[in-house]
Amino acid sequence: MDDWLTAALNAPAVLVTVAIAEGSVPREPGAKMLVTRDGFAGTIGGGHLELRAIEIARGMLAEGAAAPTLERFALGPSLGQCCGGVAHLVFEVVDREQMVLLNMRRNEDTGA
Predict the structure, then answer these.
(1) Could you give the CA distance from residue 62 to residue 28 in angstroms, rounded to a whole number?
(2) Are strands 32-36 and 40-42 parallel, antiparallel or unpaired?
(3) The pLDDT of residue 1
(4) pLDDT tens per residue across span 4-16
(5) Residue 96, domain extent
(6) Cα first-last separation, the chain
(7) Single pTM value for the model
């Protein structure tokens, strides 16, 4: 998962985090994905949930959004997923300075 830290050092990005998982969902709370204008790193479970999350994140980057948002996704027929649970995702725009701090923290934790 360290790839998302490296990716964010080079471009504006949105960090997408599974905040709450109700019932059957593809990933556990805390799972993260970093989305840039041109790519992404990590995963929040794939499928239409991930596709929709990427669309929202890229929309935030295009609009210059700054405030974090929380979105609720029912993982049923309306989203084209069969899990049946509900995932709540947090979308946070992160800038280079924030990513440098996170990278420093990661290095402290790993002793790098």
Answers:
(1) 28
(2) antiparallel
(3) 43
(4) 666 666 778 899 9
(5) 3-110
(6) 16
(7) 0.81
